[in-house]
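Hi P.,

Sorry for the delay on this. The queue was packed all week, but I finally got your sequence through. Input first:
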Amino acid sequence: MSNTQIRSVSGLVFVVIFVWSLLASPVIFTMVMLLSVLVMTKEFTTISNGNNYPVTSKLVMLASAAIYALFYFYYSGKMDSRYFWLLAPVVASIPISILYGKDQQKKTITEGYHKSAFFMMAPIYIALPFALTNIILFDSQYTYAPKTLVSLFVILWSCDVGAYVFGMAFGQKNGHKLFPSISPKKSWEGFFGGLVAAMISGFILFYTNLLQTGLIHVVAISAIVFVFSVLGDLSESLFKRNFGVKDSGSIMPGHGGLLDRFDGALIAFPVAIAYIKLFQLI
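Then the structure:
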């Protein structure tokens, strides 16, 4: 199979599992999403800090899992807000644990200081954006309502497909590079292909009543998801380039790691959710 075929099959399996879990029940989706957050957190800490701080890595994964779980329990009406304070000791223990990394005695103080920044960043960069999706997964009566989040994923995936198809067709040989110093393969042709795909998917979601809001808001949400997913993709590319890594992992053939698959959502979804809540669309 060619790389394109492998990528397509892998992506299709990913979409089927994700959409099925999202539509099946909040518990199933939460388990899938929680596992995904843990895998992405592990990918991030491995790239940035290797395996020399096993205790710290486990605490970071615990913090990421706790952030997602607490948001789920609170917005589903199963928990009081006071339990968010449980995050305080977990987060506070992360920089302390770096003092006891197995290679810390061989490194300078500055080395440990730099590593602490990446460890502290992981739960905020990875867990928090997906924890915020629970805000739009449940209504004011704590009823599970996944249509809006499904719509955001549809727009996001449409952007990816549009950008990939247009980029391969028009941007590879004589195309105009979007950001060559960070991601040499991305082109302006792919950029506008993704924009067109985002708008088409937005109109389809509007006319099928999956995204239940005014057409102007649908266009705005589609544009937000598109623009910020591109920025999220570039941000993750910069992160990997800084450490000389091509892919964040190998869990998805043809795509890389889960962090490679979700990089756009990490930036786009919080902004889209902020827009939705700002205008009280749900």
